[in-house]
Fold:
Amino acid sequence: MTVTHNKGTGNRTTRVLGILALVSMAAVIWLGLVVTPPDVNMGTLVRLIYVHPAVATMAYVAFGVTALASLLYLFPRTRSWRWDRLAGASAEVGVVFCALTLATGSIWGRPTWNVWWTWDARLTLTALLCALFIGYLALRRTGGAAEPRAIRCAVAGVLFSVVVPIDHYATQWWRTLHPGDTLDSLHPLIHGIQLWTMLLSFVAFGLVYAWLVLHRTRLEQLESRLENEGLALALAARRAEAAPRAPVPVHNGPPGAVPVAVGSAESAATDGGQP
Amino acid sequence: MNLTNWGYVFLGYGVCFGTLAAYAVWLVARGRKLSRTLPPEERTWQ
Amino acid sequence: MWRDAVLIAGKDLKIELRSRVATNQVAPFAIIVLVLFGFALDPDRTILQTAAPGLFWVAVLFCTLLAVQRSFAVEAADGAGDGLRMSGLDPAGIFLGKAAAIALELIGLEALLALGIVFLYGVALTGAALLFATAAAATVGLAACGTVYGVLAAGLRVRETLLPLLILPVVAPVLIGATQAWEAALGTSTDNGWKWVTLLGVFGVVYVTLGVLAFGTLLEEA
Structure:
């Protein structure tokens, strides 16, 4: 019997991806905190531009992937469990990135305007998106048969995504009427090494997103196997506990008689009408 | 809460990378745990 | 499809007429919400008047949740849902019928709430055309959206807590749009209310279309 090394959800691809992500992330941190100069107006707070926009973009990318995967699952010709798993994985990673977008946006806004939350159009939109996909994740955790649940989630994924452009205009118009503090007014003109660092941050967070989604998709596969086989495995384990001693065949009767197993409560019970 | 500007930058970076690292660790750990409990089988990534 | 829609809408409204849940339970609830807002905000009339459009539409959202829950609760009892599936009615028609019934109930509740803000908050209703157009567009969107998510969550045990979590973030643009349009109508804002009505219209069209397309699939999985 071949022994597969099931160390988990990793393989060569994720290891390479992981190293690339770590290296680029380290570069961003070093460039962002040490090498790049502070901004003329914003001072050292500009360093958050190497984190916030990239994280926000990845959140939207993640939800776009969920929407696309949901669509692919719904069309019978492309239906495959792979898309359902991808949709769920990307949604969870997306919620993480979304929360980080809100956190970093809030942390950036606080020293600038002295409040933790500003009803900036884009931040509000992101908060709405976060709420939508938290609902999506809740839908994924509802019990029941796997296929109806997958279809339900796929439909919800598409329905949520369709409303995003409408939300964009709604929040945009809403805030232009009462122009408050917008993060747009924060974005300084950056060039040179600042620009390159920001671009690198997009690459770095993109790699991190890809690595996280790969692992989460595989985890989803394991979780669904646990759901299917978990009960059977647990039953087998309980049965193994109930019958600790292996039955020993004892020949008592005439040759040709069925050997009677001794010492096994189970087979004694099932031994019914044996001669 | 009154931090210096550097304080906010570190807070932002810390929250961001800390959360991502913690999430990554949780993913890998749960993956290994499930791999141990489930019998070996065809995995599409191996 | 249209015939089936009328059939289903008629059925739902007849059930409502006989059980009087909307009139005896949801309507008082709506008024109570308005009163609670009065308690929460200074009874100083100005703040209530300024905030009236927003409070009105928040109350409408709560009523929508109740109306949707009720609409699908009647299907859950006694295997009525299975009966509906096997009846051979066009699923799109079922969707339109249920949504229409919810929309009509909402219109009634909105009329009641409008009277409420006139009496309780001292609001003068001006700009009738804009008020009505907004209400029409918003109600269509709310009813369609609610019906779609209602059937999605219909068979689930966590339905009562899941439905608000699903619906409320989705109808956020309706809240924003309807509030802004009503503020323009009542004169508390100088914005162009009709662009918001357009947005509400788009939302409504989108969800009616999606509902018609998706309801068959969702009904089977419920």
